[in-house]
Write a structure and sequence with these properties.
Blueprint: E1 17-19, E2 25-27, E3 38-39, H1 65-79, E4 88-89, H2 95-104, H3 118-122
Parallel strand pairs: 3-4
Antiparallel strand pairs: 1-2
Amino acid sequence: MTARPSHLPGRAMPALSLPATDGRQVALDALGSGRTVVYIYPMTGRPGVDLPEGWDDIPGARGCQTPESCAFRNLTPTCRPPGRRGYSACPASPPTTQAEAVDRLHLPFAMLSDEHLALVGASGLADVQR
């Protein structure tokens, strides 16, 4: 079971921008009202690319991104009325890897790249392992 950081609910988003797979820079502190789901996971895997040594020894690490992203993809029609902001993901992967995942998983939302762990650090989640 994944620990849920109790310090995050109600906390303002940090003043930083991250690159999105649709080419935009997304200013997290300027998202405005409404609901935005930002989920953070340690790495986006790619088909045919080996995982780092010891990855499978980390509880819950294998497949962490795909089921979560696909669940948000499947819920998007019921959770997001037309014209409302979609969901974003912020793992420690470069924008090119994120774009491949958006295409492969048929995601109807852009993914963000926190390649340099800026959001992870600013949100107090610096213990994330890459």
